[in-house]
Amino acid sequence: MCPTLVAAVGLLSILGSISTFPLPSETKYNNRYDRLDIDAILNNQRTLNSYIKCLLDQGSCTAEGRTLKEHITEAMETSCEKCTDTQKKLMRKATKFLIENRPEDWKNIQEYYDKEGKFDGFIEDFVNSDD
Predict the structure, then answer these.
(1) Is the full-model pTM beyond 0.85?
(2) Residue-wise pLDDT tens digits, 15-67
(3) CATH of region 38-128
(4) Where does the signal peptide begin and end (predicted)?
């Protein structure tokens, strides 16, 4: 399975890792959610299911989930260059978790955000990088 960048960025949204409003004068997203307890979300099936449903437009969203949806295209096109280092770490952890533990959900996210497969390969490279 070749993951897509859009799906990983979407995971950031689900996990609240990307800020609700990027500041116009800055090159990074707001770090408001950099202290997010990603392990608590990944290890709580009910909470994780809620975030996944939000991302797939199958359920309600938190404010940060709705806002990240607005930034998915930009993040996809820029390989998340506006993400803070912490946001990148959170995204990598969440993406790896879904690929290994929830492959069907991961597949659904991929198909939802990259129907044409034009971003195949980006997320795999991103998830395996250390920047």
Answers:
(1) no
(2) 554 444 444 445 888 888 788 888 999 999 999 999 899 989 999 998 767 76
(3) 1.10.2080.10
(4) 1-20
